[in-house]
């Protein structure tokens, strides 16, 4: 585990403890169950693949530890609409406040502005957060395997499945791939960002995506900037991608998304 990730997880533990003290897990579960049925996150990606399109999970992100402030002004609702119009299949919205300047309100605003399924992008370490994700309207959660034990990853997945939410299991190397394949989710994200150097290299996906079994759906994450990169990922079997910072830095997000998808 990188020092950056370890620091984020320590802060996240304190954040979750404070949240659970303010709102009990029983109350948060009730709030989650009071929500409307989740949108079909995996189904949206499968439809894109079935139609011969790239399944794009378009990310809404204001800032990051590696990139600093990425977009200002930052309007999640307008960004969600732009992504939807341009052909994205799903959204990913950062909710971590300390390191990514995210919030639950950003996710709510983005989801309310479009019909796309939404992934809560955060550092999920406790069942309370899964209930919180559904309570804020998220249709899917991210599980970062390098941040979780196998037992905790399985526990979080079980909670998500009980709420009819999708799970994207993120890996960075072959060992994490093996662990992720022990989960039930079909969505396996391969992050091209080195968590120690924070640099991106598409060769990570080129090495790991071929290890994904045919009954799973690989998602190439980070470092994609043009149609050549998208084609490079498709060549090794990743027909779904997650792109955030590159698109967030473009003045016309819809035009940039169309250009990336080649539409």
From TrEMBL:
<comment type="pathway">
    <text>Amino-acid biosynthesis; L-tryptophan biosynthesis; L-tryptophan from chorismate: step 4/5.</text>
</comment>
<dbReference type="GO" id="GO:0004425">
    <property type="term" value="F:indole-3-glycerol-phosphate synthase activity"/>
</dbReference>
<comment type="similarity">
    <text>Belongs to the TrpC family.</text>
</comment>
<keyword id="KW-0028">Amino-acid biosynthesis</keyword>
<dbReference type="InterPro" id="IPR001468">
    <property type="entry name" value="Indole-3-GlycerolPSynthase_CS"/>
</dbReference>
<keyword id="KW-0210">Decarboxylase</keyword>
<dbReference type="InterPro" id="IPR045186">
    <property type="entry name" value="Indole-3-glycerol_P_synth"/>
</dbReference>
<dbReference type="InterPro" id="IPR013785">
    <property type="entry name" value="Aldolase_TIM"/>
</dbReference>
<protein>
    <recommendedName>
        <fullName>Indole-3-glycerol phosphate synthase</fullName>
        <ecNumber>4.1.1.48</ecNumber>
    </recommendedName>
</protein>
<keyword id="KW-0057">Aromatic amino acid biosynthesis</keyword>
<dbReference type="InterPro" id="IPR013798">
    <property type="entry name" value="Indole-3-glycerol_P_synth_dom"/>
</dbReference>
<dbReference type="Pfam" id="PF00218">
    <property type="entry name" value="IGPS"/>
</dbReference>
<keyword id="KW-0822">Tryptophan biosynthesis</keyword>
<dbReference type="InterPro" id="IPR011060">
    <property type="entry name" value="RibuloseP-bd_barrel"/>
</dbReference>
<feature type="domain" description="Indole-3-glycerol phosphate synthase">
    <location>
        <begin position="5"/>
        <end position="260"/>
    </location>
</feature>
<keyword id="KW-0456">Lyase</keyword>
